[in-house]
Amino acid sequence: MGFLEARGLPALASHPVLEARRSQLELELRRRHAGQDRLALRELPAMRAYAAHYRPFGQTFHVLGQLESVALKGRPIPSRLCAVTALFMVELDHGLLAAGHDLDLLAGPLGMSASRGGEQYVALGGRPVSLPAGDLILRHGGGILSSVLQGPDQATPIGAATRNVLFTFYGPPSLPGGLLAAGLAGLAGLLGQFAPEAALEQCIFPAPEGPG
User: What global pTM score does this model have?
Assistant: First the structure.
């Protein structure tokens, strides 16, 4: 997993430089994948790595569908709170799975483990979920923060009042080397476009070997 902690973000729903970069990325993605189809996107190294995790659970990596929507169908990248927009842009640009949490709502130390099966939490959107064995989950003192299959929790989302954020990037074992670092660097660069005074700190941790 990769982590980027950002402290001192402004309360911005949009920023002209970030909006310009968002429009530019839309064009870049369409040029990069011109002439391709969904099957071709599925063969991208990052997409194959995540598919290997999702497939045994009968699920599809949702970022694949989002990339298809923007790159092949010409739909815009959604514009939301700046911190959320930046994170979504990095997911599409690098093919990564990421989440963002209000850092001030976290409690206690973080813990990363493989799920044993049966763990439950309320996911974003108010969805009660129960995890199968073998998913990757991130915990804090208040419970499960997020999982690969079900996404972030409902209790710690980035909101209009959020000033300090923990961004998390999930990297399956077969993810090509350097992609997590590139994603973290890309996000740091985007945050700098609208929050140049924010304090940023990042790191990458190896995945756990089993349930814990």
Answer: 0.94
Judge whether residue 182 has pLDDT over 70: yes
Domain ranges of the chain: 2-106+156-204
Nearest to 198 by CA among 166, 152, 157: 166
- Strand ranges of the sheet holding 199-204, from the earlier edge strand across to the other edge: 97-102, 164-170, 2-7, 199-204
Residues in the chain: 212
The C-alpha atoms of residue 46 and residue 23 are separated, in whole angstroms, by: 23
Say if residue 211's pLDDT is above 50: no
| pLDDT score of 206 | 79
Kind and range of the H or E element at 53? helix 45-54
Sign of the Cα torsion 80, 82, 87, 93 reads positive
